[in-house]
Every structure is written in structure tokens, then in C-alpha cells.
Amino acid sequence: MSKKIALVTGAARGIGLATAKLFIAQGWNVAMIDRDGDELQSASADLSDAKPFIFDVSIPEQVDQMIADVLGAFGQIDAVVNNAGVADFLPVEETSFATWRRIMETNLDGVFLVSQAAIPALKETKGAIVNIGSISGLRASTLRVAYGTSKAAVIHMTKQQAAELGEYGIRANCVCPGPVKTKLAMAVHSPEIISAYLDAMPLGRYGTENEIAEVIHFLCSDKASFVTGQIVAADGGFETTGVGLPALRRK
Ligand SMILES: NC(=O)c1ccc[n+]([C@@H]2O[C@H](COP(=O)([O-])OP(=O)(O)OC[C@H]3O[C@@H](n4cnc5c(N)ncnc54)[C@H](O)[C@@H]3O)[C@@H](O)[C@H]2O)c1
What tens digit of pLDDT does each residue of 41-64 get? Predict the structure, then answer.
């Protein structure tokens, strides 16, 4: 049987790169997408079952070309992982419209554009979409008016996609990671934020890129063939514990 093809955006580093490597280890071929050409070339250099495609997911013309190039190289797409993302932590009053748009362009527009452009190919394979949300889209917080709102919208878009694309056999699910020490997170997590996260999470630690990749891979695989429209937090229990009042703890 020929190998399945996964298209992973934001694959040059972090969760996207771990996801690309896990899919390859599970016998897939991977179209690695990123707008950071240098980092993508070096990340993909040693991965024989992957090909790099340098594109920006927030630009409609680039997305159309990207899907055409991936189909030209691999002939089919079995899974789309919308992982490319950017973050900025600012108070509402200090979030300029330019910042708002910068976050929305990648985190929300990019997911819409890539998913839409891939639909004809996904119809052929009865494929799967996995969108990467965040605990910031599940729970509100200070400083995340743009980032949190973009991720909440991605969560709802996933449900829209599941509702509409199910008739073609296309599944759509969303993985909401908790904190993982990637370049994106470390740019906005101060030491105080890190220790507050550790205090608030039942598992008491940051996740690893690979722990998120495992959930993404499961949702794209045939093992999840009856799962669609679901939002899965891979977050060490952060979301489920609410405010987790310290005064209610035993220690
Ligand atoms: N790390 C965390 O703690 C965390 C928590 C929750 C959710 N997430 C989400 O996980 C996803 C991956 O994040 P990460 O932590 O691995 O980040 P990262 O910064 O390490 O990697 C993101 C990658 O996406 C690429 N990218 C960004 N905008 C792009 C665009 N418009 N077009 C193409 N490529 C683009 C970047 O060049 C980079 O290689 C993001 O959607 C992020 O919001 C991360």
C-alpha cells in the first residue's frame, strides 16, 4: 500500500517539527510547510520521507500554490495539520490593530485558507484535518485578547468544518496544547508565568512537543475514524481544573 501524505504547517520547529517526525516514524510521507525558509531547509534536510515547501499560510495566493505544489510532489493529501501559529501577550488597550491582524492572519485566516484549499484533495482520500488551538482558546486570560480570541475561533471553526465536511468523509478535530517550551512559548512566558503554570497544572510540568504530536497523529489516523468535531486538550489537566483554588488543596 502506498504511503499516506500529511501536510503539516509551521513544521520548521517546535510542535510542527515533532509532528512531522512522528508521522514519518509511523510510515507517512510529510509535506513540511513553513515561511521560515532557512529553518525549514535545515529541519527537513535529514528527513528522507519529507519535502519542504516554503510558503506563508496567511496569504491566499501562496496557499493555492502550496496545495498545487504538494499535490504535484505527492499526488494526494490524507491529513492536514494546521499548526503554524504566532503569539503576542499584550493588554487590550495596548493591542494595536496591526498586532491584532498579525495574530489573526496566521492563527485564524491561515487555518481557514489551508483547510479550504485542501478540501478537494481531502475529498479524494476521505482525509482528516487537525487544527491546533490552545488552552488560551478554552479559557480566557489577561494579555491574550488577540491570541486567545484567534484560538477560540479556531476551536469553533473546527466544529463548522466537522459539521459541513462529514458528508464527504472528511473528519476535523482540534488539539489544544497546554504550555510546551518552544520558541513561541518562551518568547512570551516569563519565569513568573512558568511557575504560575506549574502551580496551576495537575501534572505539574510543561508538556513536550512529542506529547502533542502523539494526539495529533492519533486524530489523523484510522484509529480515530469515528471521531470528528472534537476538541482535545493535551494540557496536563490545566483546562479541567478551572481556577483550582490553592486554599482547597491538601498541601
Ligand atoms: N508552545 C506552546 O506552549 C503552545 C501552547 C498552545 C498552543 N500552541 C500552538 O501550537 C502551534 C505551534 O506552536 P510552537 O510552540 O511549536 O511555535 P514555534 O514558534 O516553535 O513554531 C511555529 C512555526 O510556525 C511558523 N509560522 C508562523 N507563522 C507562519 C505562517 N504565516 N506561515 C507559515 N509558517 C508560519 C514559524 O516560522 C515556526 O516555524 C501554534 O499554533 C501555537 O499557537 C503552542
Answer: 999 999 999 999 999 999 999 999
**Measured between alpha carbons, how far is 179 from 113 in angstroms, rounded to an integer?**
26
Domains and their CATH numbers in the chain:
5-234 (3.40.50.720)
- pLDDT at position 192 is 92
- Is residue 147 flagged as an active site residue? yes
Nearest CA to ligand 1 atom 44: 177
**pLDDT of amino acid 213:** 98
pLDDT the model gives residue 242: 63
Pocket test for ligand 1, best of 61, 184, 188, 193 (most atoms within 8 A of CB): 184
Q: Evaluate if pTM is beyond 0.90.
A: yes
What confidence score (pLDDT) does residue 51 get?
98
Helix (H, G, I), strand (E, B) or coil at 242: coil
Report the alpha-carbon distance of residue 177 to residue 189 in Å, rounded: 15
User: Can you tell me which residue has the cell 490593530?
Assistant: 97
Closest CA to 247 of 203, 206, 199: 199
Distance CA 54, CA 61 (A): 13
Going by their DSSP bridges, the two strands 50-54 and 171-177 should be labelled as unpaired
CA angle 240, 177, 58 (to 5 degrees): 135
3-state helix, strand, coil in the chain (%, to 5): 55, 15, 30
Q: How far is the CA of 203 from the centre of ligand 1 (A)?
A: 23
Q: For the chain, which residues score pLDDT lower than 50?
A: none
3-state secondary structure (DSSP) of residue 189 = coil
C-alpha dihedral sign at 78, 18, 8, 84: positive
